[in-house]
Amino acid sequence: MDYTPKSEHKFTFGLWTVGNVGRDPFGEPVRQPISPVESVHLLGEVGAYGVNFHDNDLVPIDASGSERDQIVRDFKAALRETGLVVPMATTNLFADPAFKDGAFTSNDPKVRAYAMQKTMNSIDLGVECGAEVYVFWGGREGTESDATKNPAESIKRFREALNFLCRYTQDQGYNLRFALEPKPNEPRGDIYLATVGHALAFIETLDHPEMVGLNPEVAHETMAGLNFLHGVAQAWEAGKLFHIDLNDQAPGRYDQDFRFGMVNPKNAFFLVKFLEDVGYDGNRHFDAHAFRTEDYEGVKDFARGCMRTYLILKEKARQWNADSEIHALVQEINADDGSAPSWAGGYSSDKANTLKAHTFDRQALGARGLPYERLDQLTVELLLGVR
Ligand code: GLT
Ligand code: MN
Ligand code: MN
C-alpha cells in the first residue's frame, strides 16, 4: 500500500502547528522559532497540501503596512515554490493582553471594537492568500468567575459580532464561509459555545446561518468528555461540517493536541471511516504539534505521522466496508422482515391507527441477541492487523 500524501487528500497544517516552539505553562521554548516561509518549505517537504494561519502567525501584530506587504509577498513566493495553498485563515484574538478578558465578549466596548477591526483586517489577509474558510476559535471568550460576565449577554455580543462580520464579508464580495470551533475550557476557566452542540444551536440564531458552520476538534470534544464522532456526524447531517481539526487527546487531561491517532486509534478509525464514507470533501486539518522533546526532524516525523495514520485508517475503512463477514453482520443487524406496520415517510391518520392497533411481541423484541460483540471484535482484529 502506498500511504503517500497527495493534494487530493487535502491535508493541511497551521503555521502555529509545525512552527510550535514547545512552550508550555511550566517551560520555555525548546525549538528555535522558524519563519512562515520556512514552515511552508517544511510542509512542502513532508507532502502537505495546504497551510493555514492566524493573522499574527504571518504578520506580527505591530508590523507596519509596508512590512506586512513584504511579508505577504515572501509568503506567496514560498507558496508558489512549494505548490501549497491557503484554504483557511483565522484571527489571533487570544494572545495579546488586550484580549485577556475576551474579544467579542469582552466587557469593554473598546476591546470589542478592536477585536472587530482586527478580524476584518485578518479576513482581508486570509482572502488575499486564497482562504475560503474562516475559523473562529474563541479561546478567551469565557470566564474564570461568573461574577464577571453575564453569560446570556455574552452570547448576544458574540451574535452581534458574527452578524456584523458576515455582512462585512458579503459587502466585500468575498467567497468565504465561517467555521466556529468550540472548546470547553483552556485557556479560560470556562469558554462559551463549549461544544459542537452549543455552536450548532447558536448558528441558527444568526442573521446569516447559511454562512456559518463548524470546525470541530478531536481534542476539544474529548476534553468535554464527549464522543467526537457523534458531534461531527450531527454537524455533517446539518450541513455544517465546514472544516475539521484532527489531533488526539486523552480524556481528563490538559489540551494535548497530540499527533492524529496517537491516543485512541479506534476512535480515529471510526472518524476517518465516517469522513470517507459520507464523502466529506473539506480540508483535513491537523491542529496538533510535536512533543516538546522533538527537534525539527521530529516535527517532520510528527507531521508525516498525522497524514500517514489518516491514510492507513482510510485503507482500513475500505477493508472494513469490503469484509464479507462484517458486511453480513451489518446486514443482519439492519434486517427488516416487513412484519411491523410502516409509519415511515410522514404522518397519516391511517398509519397512526394501524400502528396503534398492531400487537407487538415485546418479549421477543427484548430477547433477541445482537451480534455486536462479534462485530466489534472483527473491527478490533482488522485494526490490529490480524484480519
Ligand atoms: C489554538 C487552538 C486551536 C485553534 C487555533 C485556531 S489556535 O492553537 O488551540 O485549537 O484551532 O485559532
Ligand atoms: Mn486543541
Ligand atoms: Mn483547533
Give the terminus-to-terminus CA distance.
16 Å
Helix-strand topology string: EHHEHHEHEEHEEHEHHEHEHHHHH
Q: Could you say what the CATH topology of the largest domain is called?
A: TIM Barrel
**Uncertain residue segments:** none
Q: What percentage of residues falls in helices of 4 or more residues?
A: 40-55%
| Domains (count) | 2
User: What general outline do the C-alpha atoms trace?
Assistant: globular
CATH superfamily of the largest domain: Divalent-metal-dependent TIM barrel enzymes
Overall average pLDDT: 98
What structural class should be given to the helix and strand makeup?
Answer: alpha/beta
CATH architecture of the largest domain: Alpha-Beta Barrel
Write out the strand line-up for the largest beta sheet, numbering strands in chain order.
Answer: 8-6-4-3-2-1-10-9
Strand content: 5-15%
